[in-house]
Amino acid sequence: MQKRGNASLCPAIRPWSDRTEAGARDDGAGHVDFLTDHKIPVGAIAGRIFDWLQDNGAFVFDTLAIFLETLIDALLALFLSPPGIGWLTGSAEPVPLYPAAWHPIVVIAVFVALTWALQRRWQTCLLVALGFLFVLNQGYWEETAESLTLVLSACVVCMALGVPIGIAAAHRPRLYAWMRPVLDLMQTLPTFVYLIPAIVFFGIGMVPGLMATVIFVLPAPIRLTHLGISSTPAPLVEAAEAFGATRRQLLWKVELPSALPQIMAGLNQTIMLSLSMVVIAALVGADGLGVPVVRALNQVNTSLGFESGFVIVVVAIVLDRMLRVKGK
């Protein structure tokens, strides 16, 4: 006696279920093919924009590259070459005021004096002195000078652009609403993506590394300046307006002093983020502490990688302690 159940219905049901599953798979594949066949040309549009900029903006990019190279050379000369006077001898080569071997010690002394002027704490001054002396002891002074040049150049450009943009955004909320997605994109886009247009427009060297650093770092001073200006206490603004302060006086004598801690925090973040880009910038030919790190990665050299990486950490700690914002 045969048992009756679902098994007897399987031969009749299975072909229909197979056809149904096959049809579902075909319909799903058709939808996927429709989506992939009608791809939004994001990359093609970006390529056309970059090609147009390269063809029509060569003069602008060349002028910008000359300005940035001049800034980099001037800062690098401050770190690596002792000051000199050429008018005493009338020669084209300036006469150094002291031997070139002393120049790192002089630069370290200047950093210590600057730290004392900013922090007024001998412990911080001692930390700065010991940190830079450690860098000198490890033989990375020239690479550190090149990285500091990249960092300071990025700070000059980012603060010169970021602070005015942040002030304008704080006074115009609609402008900041339009800017916020752009700032989010600049901070979330992988940093390696910045290197592609930097190489296209500026070639290989310090300038493309600097431009990639500026794009990555610029949102920090904009956001923190906007935060500082927007957070100005309303009673201060009302009191200044009651005494007849103009918009310029309100900005320079009320809003900027009130926002100074946030602006200094933006400067600190700018320096830290710029220093984090030294290894990325080395991939496009920028000199500095990123070069030995990349070399160690290519050679799988653990000692070289740890040595140069530890120097980067020491420099980051020193700069952070130098520019740490004091509490109100």
UniProtKB/TrEMBL annotation:
Pfam families: BPD_transp_1 (PF00528)
GO biological process assignments: choline transport; glycine betaine transport
Location relative to the cell: Cell membrane
Membrane topology of this protein: Multi-pass membrane protein
Annotated ABC transmembrane type-1 domain residues: 144-323
Source superkingdom: Bacteria
Descriptive protein name: Glycine betaine/proline transport system permease protein
Keyword ATP-binding: no
Transmembrane regions: 58-80, 100-118, 125-141, 147-170, 191-218, 265-284, 304-323
Presence of keyword Membrane: yes
GO MF entries: amine transmembrane transporter activity; carnitine transmembrane transporter activity
PANTHER family (UniProt xref): GLYCINE BETAINE/PROLINE BETAINE TRANSPORT SYSTEM PERMEASE PROTEIN PROW, GLYCINE BETAINE_PROLINE BETAINE TRANSPORT SYSTEM PERMEASE PROTEIN PROW
PROSITE patterns (alphabetical): ABC_TM1
GO CC, one annotated term: ATP-binding cassette (ABC) transporter complex
Principal cellular location given in the protein's record: membrane
Annotated family: Belongs to the binding-protein-dependent transport system permease family.
InterPro entries, per the entry: ABC_transptr_choline_permease, MetI-like, MetI-like_sf
Keywords of this entry: Cell membrane, Membrane, Transmembrane, Transmembrane helix, Transport
